[in-house]
Specification:
Layout (H helix, E strand, L loop, with lengths): L11 H12 L2 H13 L3 H29 L3 H7 L7 H33 L10 H13 L3 H18 L2 H28 L4 H9 L8 H14 L6 H7 L7 H29 L7 H14 L5 H34 L4 H21 L8 E2 L4 E2 H28 L2 H8 L10 H25 L1
Antiparallel strand pairs: 1-2
Helix pairs in contact: 1-8, 1-12, 1-14, 2-10, 2-12, 3-4, 3-10, 3-11, 3-12, 3-16, 3-17, 3-18, 4-5, 5-7, 5-14, 5-15, 5-16, 6-13, 7-8, 7-14, 7-15, 8-12, 8-14, 9-12, 11-14, 13-14, 14-15, 16-18
Bound molecules: 4-fluoro-L-phenylalanine.
């Protein structure tokens, strides 16, 4: 174990805020509610809760332990916990995953940023409740060469500034302000949505259990979402683990983060679906829900719609920002540890690189859509989307949990979880079983199903 201590978060609250910031993102707000409704509401929720608390949290705990025990960023973390340096490849894989996820995330975050602006200046409300006009507006915007790119760079530059301010002054302070703001925004939107006529139908769609809709595909979606939502499998939680105060209770902190992340995902559903159903609209998935269905909902609210629309896109941008910040931090801190560069230089370098790739992915939806990959003719954006959802995170999670459960000395794991014997770890037996058997098996199944499907 390393003895020199570098940067840390100032308190348990700081860790929780920053890690919840990483976990709560676009995945919670536009993906979770949709797949929950699609695959059987309450039935999906039960499966999701099992996955998120038994498998997702297990992975998060293992990443925190690897990070805090080693006091290193991903590559060195794996290298320092075993005599074979080759294990560092897991960390490298995590960082590559972070890089591609961030580049793609920037595209979607840029759209969100642009829609805050469009909402404020009244461009969205001017479209009224004409579903065709709203969809055309989004199609025109997302395929425009320039506007999404400008929005992407603005969003990315704000993340850069936060990272340049450092771990405590930047990430921790920003998370402590943005996370309560996010909760406030989501609560206000929930109240508005629930008080619309016919809101009950949306709640029914979201919560009433329909086991006939819970297909094998739904179960896999639940597991994939549990991992993505908790930001595990990309080295980010290893980096945040290395910033964790040494007396922090890793298990409790991970449970808090998991609970907050899940609660916010459910609240996002409560904010969205009652309003969608109240307007008699069909819930769509992904960007369609956020950029085509919801503007219609807001426009049907009359004058106040502009306020709620602005609040919603702000909520989305805040959620996306703290997630993007965690990804940029993982990359920045890693280079900082491996090369003699300053934090500023490292952050600027990754800002430039991820923005450049982000711009390429963004252009591939519009002006560069003729460039395709493979026999399926995927655009660059669709290709990286596939890489980020089906391949990289499950592969990296699988290697991480195998390392944690089978390679890393068990005495180190117990010592770290118990804070050198200071806290009780009564859960350890169950946790060990999950980490060694259940989690690797579940990840293997997801991976195989993803590759074959
Ligand atoms: N957890 C984020 C979401 O649900 O949108 C996405 C994410 C952020 C994944 C950071 C991975 C990560 F390292």
């Amino acid at each position: 174990m390393a003895t020199t201590k570098k940067t840390t978060f100032s308190s348990t609250l700081g860790v929780i805020m920053a890690a919840v910031g990483s976990a709560v993102g676009l995945g919670n707000i536009w993906r979770f509610p949709y797949i929950c409704g699609k695959y059987g509401g309450g039935a999906f929720l039960i499966v999701y809760l099992c996955f998120v608390f038994f498998l997702g949290a297990t992975l998060m705990i293992s990443e925190f332990v690897i990070g805090r025990r080693s006091q290193h960023t991903p590559v060195k973390a794996f290298q320092s916990l075993h005599s074979k340096k080759a294990w560092g490849f897991i960390g490298l894989l995590g960082l590559i995953t972070s890089f591609f996820i961030l580049s793609q995330y920037l595209v979607l975050s840029g759209w969100t940023t642009d829609y805050i602006w469009e909402s404020v200046v009244g461009n969205l409300s001017a479209l009224g409740t004409d579903a065709g006009a709203i969809s055309n507006h989004f199609a025109q915007f997302s395929t425009d060469g320039l506007r999404p790119v400008i929005a992407l760079v603005v969003f990315s530059a704000i993340c850069l500034i936060v990272i340049m301010c450092g771990v405590q002054k930047g990430i921790e302070n920003v998370s402590k302000v943005l996370m309560p703001l996010l909760v406030l925004l989501v609560l206000v939107l929930c109240v508005r949505s629930l008080t619309l006529p016919g809101a009950g139908k949306g709640l029914e769609y979201l919560f009433s259990p329909d086991f006939s809709k819970l297909t094998g595909e739904g179960v896999l979606a639940a597991l994939g979402q549990a991992l993505f939502s908790l930001s595990v499998g990309m080295g980010v939680m290893i980096v945040y683990g290395s910033y964790m105060p040494l007396n922090d209770n890793v298990f409790k902190t991970a449970m808090w983060i998991t609970a907050c992340d899940t609660l916010i995902a459910i609240l996002a559903g409560v904010a969205i679906f009652p309003a969608v159903f109240s307007c008699g609209l069909d819930p769509a998935g992904g960007p369609g829900l956020v950029f085509c269905v919801l503007p219609n909902v807001f426009n049907s609210m009359g004058g106040a719609g502009v306020v709620f629309s602005t609040m919603f896109f702000l909520l989305l941008a805040v959620a996306a920002m703290t997630s993007a910040i965690s990804l940029l931090e993982a990359l920045t801190a890693s280079l900082l540890e491996h090369a003699k560069v300053s934090r500023h230089l490292s952050a600027i370098l990754f800002f430039l690189l991820t923005s450049a790739f982000g711009i390429l992915f963004s252009l591939s939806i519009g002006p560069l859509s003729h460039i395709t990959i493979g026999s399926a003719h995927l655009t660059l954006f669709d290709f990286v989307d596939k890489l980020n959802s089906i391949y990289l995170p499950p592969i990296c999670s699988l290697f991480t949990i195998i390392f944690f459960g089978w390679v890393m000395p068990e005495a180190d794991v117990q010592d770290e979880l118990s804070n050198h014997g200071a806290v009780k770890i009564g859960y350890y037996g169950v946790f060990r079983f999950l980490a060694r058997y259940l989690a690797p098996l579940a990840l293997l199944i997801v991976l195989i199903a993803g590759i074959m499907g």
